[in-house]
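Ops channel
N.P.: pipeline sanity check, posting one input/output pair.
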């Protein structure tokens, strides 16, 4: 247990160094928030392995596909190398790698296959960070980094049927709320994740209503 704490702290420090200054929503503070939320959900899931959850939460975006030229194996590989250096048990490393591989959002109509309770927790914590007040801030930060319009009423949202189509889209940031963010609450995998998502979802809906009214000069 004491060793677990040390490995977690060392991993947090390493990720803080590595993800510093990443400006499109996957900076260290994203990992930090996912870690905090994952711990909160874990407290409601007594069977979950806390070490696996915390390490996977911290490492899940070590090499996001959008910044690693589409290589989905880079994240699990880098995480595995780091954990081996820390002498973490092979079974724990394997579980963490499976989680990193499976939690990416793959489009509105693409199935997500999450076997373990630990994967479900990290998935929920990651998706929760795309919702609510923080989710709104991240969406516009991402859109700005990609030079997208904040909103364009002439471009309608699209429901993507494949991960390829979802990745390729260049639509205005408001559309992202309809193409992804408002769908997340129904993808939640844990009871606590669902509860938190519903609250954040309701907040975003109020925000969008206000935004669209202001757009037309109605507020
Ligand atoms: P995940 O971490 O669930 O795999 P992504 O990496 O796709 O999610 O997205 C990370 C953050 O960037 C999220 O907050 C998400 O809403 C935002 N984001 C991703 N794609 C877009 C987009 N096309 N427009 C605006 N924000 C986006
Ligand atoms: Ni993430």
């Amino acid at each position: 247990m004491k060793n677990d704490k040390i490995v977690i702290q060392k991993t947090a420090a390493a990720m803080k160094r590595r993800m510093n200054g990443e400006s499109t929503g996957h900076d260290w503070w994203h990992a930090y928030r996912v870690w905090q939320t994952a711990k909160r959900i874990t407290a409601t899931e007594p069977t979950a392995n806390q070490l696996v959850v915390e390490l996977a939460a911290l490492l899940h975006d070590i090499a996001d596909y959008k910044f690693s030229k589409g290589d989905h194996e880079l994240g699990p590989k880098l995480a595995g190398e780091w954990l081996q250096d820390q002498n973490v048990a092979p079974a724990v490393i394997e579980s963490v790698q499976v989680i990193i591989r499976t939690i990416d959002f793959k489009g509105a109509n693409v199935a997500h296959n999450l076997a373990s309770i630990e994967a479900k927790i990290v998935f929920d914590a990651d998706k929760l960070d795309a919702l609510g007040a923080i989710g709104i801030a991240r969406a516009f930060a991402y859109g700005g980094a990609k030079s997208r319009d904040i909103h364009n009423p002439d471009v309608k949202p699209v429901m993507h049927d494949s991960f390829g189509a979802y990745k390729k889209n260049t639509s205005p940031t408001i559309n992202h709320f309809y193409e992804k963010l408002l769908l997340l609450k129904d993808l939640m995998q844990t009871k606590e994740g669902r509860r938190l998502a519903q609250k954040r979802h309701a907040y975003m809906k109020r925000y969008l209503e206000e935004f669209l009214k202001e757009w037309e000069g109605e507020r």
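N.P.: looks fine end to end. Residues 25, 64, 104-105, 126-127, 130, 135, 138-139, 142-143, 173, 176, 181 surround adenosine-5'-diphosphate (ligand 1) (CB under 6 Å).
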